[in-house]
């Protein structure tokens, strides 16, 4: 499965293009995450993502949340 976690989004129409997204991704890589920048054409935004299993933060399953409540 090609699962991903979106860490942050940056508008593609910004005056600096992908630069803010690239800088954010670089900072995450310095923290040990394998962050990368991808373009989401549907929302016209640059996304900083981490693919699941590559340093992605754990996202709790809804069943786990319900069981803990």
Uncertain ranges: 56-66
Radius of gyration: 14 Å
Alpha-beta content class: alpha+beta
Largest sheet: 3 strands, antiparallel
Number of strands: 3
Mean pLDDT: 81
Measured by DSSP, the beta-strand proportion falls in 25-35%
Biggest sheet strand order reads: 1-3-2
Quickly count the helices: 2
Report the span from N to C terminus: 29 Å
Helix content: 25-40%
General shape: flat
Helix and strand sequence: EHEEH
Give a verbal description of the structure.
With 69 residues, this protein is an alpha+beta fold. The chain has 2 helices and 3 strands; from the N terminus they run E-H-E-E-H. Strands 1-3-2 form a 3-stranded antiparallel beta sheet, covered by helices on one side. The longest helix is centred in the middle third of the chain and has 12 residues, at 19-30. The chain is flat and about 30 Å long. The N and C termini lie far apart (29 Å). Residues 56-66 have low confidence and may be disordered.
Q: How would you concisely characterize the structure shown here?
A:
By secondary structure, the chain is an alpha+beta fold.
List keywords for this structure.
alpha+beta, 3-stranded antiparallel beta sheet, 69 residues
Question: Any chance you could write out the topology, listing elements then pairs?
Answer:
Layout lengths: L3 E8 L7 H12 L5 E5 L4 E7 L10 H7 L1
């Amino acid at each position: 499965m090609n699962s991903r976690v979106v860490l942050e989004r940056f508008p593609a129409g910004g005056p600096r293009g992908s630069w803010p997204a690239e800088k954010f991704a670089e900072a995450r890589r310095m923290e040990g995450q394998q962050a990368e920048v991808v373009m989401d054409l549907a929302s016209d935004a640059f996304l900083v993502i981490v693919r699941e299993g590559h340093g992605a933060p754990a996202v709790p399953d809804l069943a786990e949340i319900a069981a803990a409540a």
